[in-house]
Specification:
This protein has helices at about 25-30, 45-65, 75-85, 100-105, 145-160, 170-175, 190; strands at about 15-20, 25, 35-40, 70-75, 95, 120-125, 130-135. The protein is an alpha/beta fold. The protein has a 7-stranded mixed β-sheet with strand order 2-1-5-4-3-6-7.
Length: about 200
């Protein structure tokens, strides 16, 4: 993998076609929220399908926790739709049939020349596409568990939400003074992301 893709760095803002063939940028899909980005071999891989099936359960939590989930695979649009529908997913799947991400990040899975996929990774992103954690899933148990992702998202959300602990005297005073911009969803970040729903 590219040496600059490390925690604390900004992940590239790739623009790819989603499962509906609409061009989408990662920054648009993320908005001002924490995000889990899954770089997948594709729907042909039983490990990737099993991981996606587990993420279906977590996605319900992500929705109520104001977090995002995106999958990118080297599948074409038809395969991307089959993969997404086959696992019962309801988050954006992006198609990278041209291997743009694979080549740019230098993550070609050279042990599989037949399918030419990318090495499966799960990347937890802070707002602004800032990398918080990277999981290498070449071996299945290198992938994050749902609990790993919950813990990562707890840490990221705590960092990016100023109203994480609303019991502090400072936040109580701010609320009483009408300074609601410090609170989600009243702050500017909510207004900026109203139109980002899929």
């Amino acid at each position: 993998m590219r040496p600059d893709i490390v925690p604390g760095a900004t992940f590239p803002d790739y623009e790819l076609s989603d499962h509906l063939a609409k061009r989408r940028k990662l920054s648009e899909l993320q908005g001002q929220h924490p995000m889990v980005l899954v770089l997948s071999r594709g729907g042909y891989c039983p490990k990737d399908r099993r991981q996606a099936e587990g993420l279906v359960e977590l996605h319900r939590e992500l929705e109520v926790g104001y977090c995002r989930l995106v999958t990118i695979s080297t599948d074409n649009i038809t395969q991307t739709n089959e993969y997404r529908s086959g696992v019962g997913a309801h988050w954006p799947f992006l198609s990278d049939a041209g291997r743009i991400v694979q080549k740019d990040l230098d993550i070609a899975e050279y042990t599989d020349p037949v399918n030419n996929p990318m090495i499966p990774l799960a990347i937890v992103l802070e707002p602004g596409l800032v990398i918080y954690r990277i999981y290498n899933g070449y071996w299945f148990f290198g992938r994050p568990t749902l609990e790993d992702l919950r813990q990562d998202l707890r840490a990221v959300t705590k960092k990016c939400r100023p109203d994480w602990d609303i019991t502090t005297p400072e936040l109580k005073a701010a609320w009483q003074q009408g300074r609601k911009e410090l609170f989600y969803p009243y702050g500017k970040t909510y207004v900026q992301t109203l139109g980002e729903q899929d």
